[in-house]
Specification:
5 helices; about 130 residues; elongated; mainly alpha; about 75% helix
Amino acid sequence: MKYTKYIVQSIIGLFLSFGIMCYRGLFQTETAADRVMLVCDGFSAVALLYMAVGGLLWTASTGFFDIFGYGIRKGAHALLPGLIHDDGAGYYEYRVEKQERRKSGGEKSMIIVGLGYFVLGIVLTVVWYYL
């Protein structure tokens, strides 16, 4: 079951897209062009959501935000020295510790599913222009 993440995320994306389409009034429109536009909007919104969240998760898995965690830890220790334990380690030791605990890779499946929905939205936009 190598592709279960992709399947589950695609099904959730379909439900989110359908919810957006219904909210925008998919069943109240009279022309086919309006329906295609609403379907395109549903898929495009979910695509942008998936790509943004997937990009943030992937960036966080690379250690890009470690400096913020380190700064908050040092700032909290400066404000509350008795409550927050500080071992005196520098940023390099903090980053190595975080890297050991972090799972490798990232959430590439969300980006790939989002790109799929985005391509579908582009195709539907082209169809909408020709209607």
